[in-house]
Specification:
With 468 residues, the chain is of the alpha/beta class. It has 14 helices and 23 strands.
């Protein structure tokens, strides 16, 4: 008998397994597809390897800014090498996860799991053999899968999801991206940098819906400057074959129109993965939005827990990892918690977008008093020297400046720069305290410092207010 059986070896499951083992638990993990889950194998990590290739192509397309003369057609993408490098990165990280599990004496079984009852799980292994494992506790960390919208034509050749997009061997001349969320916009940046003509169809009135409105609009404007077309408040009705091309029919208000393209990327979010777990049979409460859990991540069935994408909420790898750690720590009597108000998020586009805390529109809707300040990267020496000054840092604070409530960025290296803001907010620093930290020069981080000092009314590069 094992102390804990975890179903799923993704960022939530394997992190929970390692932490549980460190706390003295005997742990078994069952994974049906690949160790490391979606993130390491067909999500965040392989996407970022393509993102780096796209970033280099983006630099080449603006080489004249850097004083580099490149004859047109002198450079091209070698997709055999691109895919080989992506595989190398993925294999290295997956191997690292397996090594960590072995080092912590976690037993990994490749196969599918079905919960027969609290404390009893049937595992069907890769060779077809079955084993019933008895366990004190069960933790579900099965993640999520691509959502399929109710659109005719999704099965046509050339209609792909992010999973197939990661295996690209050629660049489509024209591509329609259905969905302007985080995943969709990352691929918009990649395809645009690779040279595709990109059109984004988004049902909502803005791209990257959770982001601050101003950051979302600024990002859209920057992409439009690169030739990307956006159709917002627009629904995709159908996809049809049109000779050698695809024809996408969309509706905006009462107006119906069509877009001809070579490929369609469907990126309309993700849904929980619970198929075959036997949740209905054992009485676990769940719906299409997620498995229901309490503050300890325990379901309504005692001894069965769930974390990560499987419980809905913010579907991010680092959130799943935090929930995994906290879940097993609470199993062992610790009182740790996940601060859901301070979840950093990033979108790897050109330039990058990053955010933590509340948005300005959320505060306005609640009628909460606040103060906000921005600093444009056009005033940052490092950004100018990089020829990458399109963007800004926006800081939102309480009216008395005693707390930083939100930080939103669009600009170079935003995904890394956000960490300083996250640390300041987690430490509950006042604006004055956060602004007092000396920042190196010239660095991109000075933009965050400038936004903070602008809130205090003493930003060096702040424009003085005009007298009425």
């Amino acid at each position: 008998m094992t102390d804990l059986l975890i179903i799923g070896a993704g960022p939530g499951g394997y992190v929970a397994a390692i932490r549980a083992a460190q706390l003295g638990m005997n742990v078994t993990v069952v994974e049906k597809s690949f160790c490391g889950g979606t993130c390491l194998n067909i999500g965040c990590i392989p996407t970022k390897t393509l993102y780096k290739d796209a970033q280099i192509m983006n630099y080449f397309s603006h080489s004249e800014l850097y004083g580099i003369e490149v004859d047109k057609g002198a450079y091209r993408l070698n997709f055999d090498k691109v895919q080989a490098e992506k595989k190398k990165v993925v294999d290295t990280l997956v191997g690292g996860v397996k090594a960590l599990l072995r080092a912590n004496k976690v037993k990994l079984i490749m196969g599918t799991a079905k919960i027969l009852a609290p404390g009893k799980v049937e595992v069907t292994k890769e060779d077809g053999s079955k084993e019933v494992i008895e366990t004190a506790k069960i933790l579900i960390a099965t993640g999520s899968k691509n959502a399929a919208p109710p659109v005719k034509g999704l099965d046509l050749p050339g209609v792909i999801t992010s999973t197939e997009a990661l295996e690209m061997r050629e660049v489509p001349g024209r591509i329609v991206v259905i969905g302007g969320g985080v995943i969709g916009m990352e691929f918009v940046g990649i395809y645009n940098a690779f040279g595709s003509e990109v059109t984004v169809v988004e049902f909502l009135p803005k791209i990257m819906p959770p982001m601050d409105d101003e950051i979302s609009k600024r990002t859209q404007t920057l992409f439009e400057g690169k030739g990307v077309k956006f159709m917002l408040s627009t629904a995709c009705q159908s996809i049809e074959q049109n000779g050698d091309s695809l024809r996408v029919t969309v509706k905006s208000g009462d107006a119906v129109s069509t877009i001809d393209c070579d490929q369609v990327l469907v990126s309309t979010g993700r849904v929980i993965e619970t198929e075959g777990l036997g949740l209905e049979e054992v009485g676990v409460d769940f719906d299409r939005k997620g498995i229901k859990v309490d503050e300890n991540y325990e379901t309504n069935v005692k001894g069965i827990y769930a974390i990560g994408d499987a419980i809905g909420g913010t579907m991010l790898a680092h959130v799943a990892s935090e929930e995994g750690k906290v879940c097993v720590e609470r199993m062992n009597g610790e009182s740790t918690f996940v601060d859901y108000d301070l979840i950093p998020s990033a979108v790897f586009t050109f330039p990058e977008v990053a955010s933590i805390g509340v948005t300005e529109q959320a505060l306005k809707e609640k009628g909460t008093p606040y103060k906000a300040a921005k600093f444009q990267y056009q005033g940052n020496g490092k950004a100018l020297s990089m020829h990458d000054s399109e963007g800004m840092v926006k800081v939102i604070a309480s009216e008395d400046l005693s707390r930083i409530l939100g930080v939103h960025m669009v600009g170079p290296n935003s995904s890394d720069l956000l960490t300083e803001a996250a640390a300041d907010m987690y430490s509950m620093l006042t604006v004055q305290e956060a602004a007092s930290a000396m920042h190196g020069h010239p660095t991109l981080s000075e933009a965050y410092e400038e936004a903070l000092t602008s809130l205090l009314g003493c930003g060096i590069h702040s424009m003085p207010k005009k007298k009425k």
